[in-house]
Sequence to fold (917 residues):
Amino acid sequence: MDTATLDTPADTYAITIGLTINGQQRRLPVEPWTTLLDLLREQEGLTGTKKGCDHGQCGACTVLIDGKRVNSCLTLAVSRDGADVRTVEGLAEGDRLHPLQQAFIDHDAFQCGYCTPGQLCSAVGLLAEGKAKSRDEVREMMSGNICRCGAYTNITDAVLEVLGEGSVK
Amino acid sequence: MATTARIGIGSPLSRVDGIAKVTGQARYAAEHKPKDMLYGFIVSGAIAKGRITGIDDRKARGVPGVVEIVTHENRPRTAWLDRSHQDQLGPPGSTFRPLYDDKILFSGQPVALVLADTFEAARHAATLVNVAYEAEAHNTDFDKAVAERYMPSKKRDNYIAPKKRGDPEKALAKAPLKVESQFHLAVEHHNPMEMHATTIEWMDDGSITVHDKTQGSQNTQAYLSSAFGISASKIRVLNPYIGGGFGSGLRPQYHVYLAMLAATMMERSVRVVMTRQQMFTHVHRPAAEQRVTLGAEMDGRLTAIVNEATTSTSRYEDNMENVVTWGLMNYACPNASGDYAVAAMDTATSGDMRAPGAATGMTLFEMAIDEMAEAARLDPLAFRLLNYSEDDAMNGTPFTSKALREAFAEGAEAFGWAERKAEPRQMREGRELVGWGVATGMWDALFSKTSAGAKLSANGDLEVSSAGSDIGTGTYTVMTQIATDTLGLSPERITARLGDSDLPTSPVEGGSWGAASTGAAVQMACQSIAAKLLKAAGKVDGKPLGSAGIDDVEFVDGHIVSKTNPAASVSFTDAMRAAGLNSIEAEETATGGISGMISQMRKSRNTHSAIFAEVKVDEELGVVRVTRIVCAVAAGRIINPKTARSQILGGVVMGIGMALHEETMMDTKLGRFMNHNLAEYHVPANADIDAIDVIFVDEPDPEVTPLGVKGLGEIGIVGTAGAVANAIWHATGKRVRSLPITIDKLQD
Ligand code: FES
Ligand code: FES
Fold:
């Protein structure tokens, strides 16, 4: 980046965008270089969405944008004006967990829990895509989300259970 | 009286921290944002060895939002003495001090810390800090370093020297069967999903709260206190949630030091988070070279073992591992010896990564055992059973328990091992060759002095606590279950607390001692509550329990109930009210006891496992898939089969990574790890992992630790890569002796 552009106070560059985050409409001033991930974590305090690499290599930052799973670390917030963003904090309805959240608990589909929000959002996106039908397809299409704790077989079991029920919107 | 089914020891209770983790409410180290916090971004050094000749930070300081740039030139003073910078787990040597002086000890060493109002400003400014160096010749080539291998004069605390027995050289000379092989294991990085991070809250009264990614809150507290000369009572370290450790958080990493340095300099709250690239600039599993020479009779009985290994360390600390002892302990063989040394390179110090020493030494040894089984024309499982040792063959001591034979039997049965074809390249499915392999795993059953507290409130809620950590191991859940089991309260009434240096003393979480040690301490604290409750019950009008002693009563659903007359009972609430108590508190320390110590000297205490692997290898392309693993584990008593199974799954997955994927590659010219990101350092992804079957073999062992628990964090990885490598040989007829077994090695 050309450093000269930064010589003026940073807030000069803030652009106001509109986002619907977990059902709430927000008007947010963002600098053009702020990623959606940093916006969520630092500006909005929604730290459920995790940073595991900041380079689109791990999936920890996966959120749903207009229902599609996206790596929020690779998404400049300013480019998503008007979008509907759903994060892990927005999956449950009040105290009622999303079926995937419950299945993750039942199948012990996590250990440290750090990849879990990304896995969950990714799985919600996967179900919406409607492409994965078999165990092998779930394994393949969930491979953008690394779990260093190695909970894969349990993650796959959890996703398959919910997939089998077909109970998810 | 209504009784609910007891959800105590042995039941598959779902993680009690599950809801926090699936809803995003669990907060990790970088997820706290105190008022006026500065963002710290680390500038990494560019050379492997030499000195800094100048730092030009003018441009960086000009970036709006940048508040300060900390370097060795302007940093505040810290403790002078080397030993003030030692942490509880530091190996012998001179601990690395970030931003201490102009010397560069390894590539990627932090050379400056940029502090700014926003993360983006700090990150951008960091790219503008100009550092000039004077480079010196370095060596980061392990093969070259091995030529100068040495035994450190001062040994690491937990190092165990291999014991020689018989005359292995003579036995080798006479042995009708002999195999001699050299193995290699690449450097691996832990890569927990959460990057190392610290948020320091600078309080108005001068006290400091440190949210740190560490496996030991009290280790970090002691380290910061001594390095910065600040009373420990002013430093509180919190780590209730840790996004994976695997050993990387055993010692305080440089991020916490930098955060503290900046906070004390600015007297402000500071957060420092490493980037994923920077996660490749500190601790890693050492590179290893292991030469195994085996001699045997024609019938396959081992007559000689010579087990030699070298692992890498830095120039400034001697990290040592127990690599060669495992093979010597595990096999009955009259003549055996081991030799171990380290090789120093210009890198950061290597350190413990999941099952340090064993994951390397046992795995590679099991690959050699497979070669001898082939030489003896024996089934590899039959070979292992032929040379099975009931006792610890190196120390000549019995085990408190060793159900490895049962693990072999149950694992083989589940796997269908009996169908295996003896010769390689005999099984095929379409264009893929199929191979089956087996290996043994072994780890220590460790116990570590630990304290725990318990507090029962008048409304019947119980809190149990210890300063230990749950790094994904399930410690919160295990504590809850033990409390449930001891006091008969339902899990919903129990809160388990961990990850706070203010709580009762606990060692760093690692080495699989958590469940055994914290569990025992929690049980003792709850037993102490039970005794106090019973005493209080004596104050209840009419003494419903008479003169019943602790052995005459049970604790069920918030009541003390007479065993002989279940109609006689006193509720916890009534007992406490009668005694005028608002709460009952206890703190106890589990030490393993005197008899434990004596038994420790006379008996060996270990976990064992039998791993069976199936691989499919594309004959043309050399692509390997691990299609099935059966891991049968003998680890004493299992407190929670659900979380226990997950521990083994995690170890097995990392073992598959070791077998096929994980390798940090060194550019020896630049002295820098090349593939320092998650795209080029491949950790197994979901598609790499197929069926894994975990079996826990019945192994009652009241002697090993107070609860009969042996620990499960490490055993899953030990030997797994060996079983996969042996299966690859069975599929292809090719012995690849260097891990990971990547396609190129199978193709040439
Ligand atoms: S943080 Fe976005 S993919 Fe890793
Ligand atoms: S649960 Fe720890 S990384 Fe997936």
Remarks:
- Chain A has a mean pLDDT of 92.
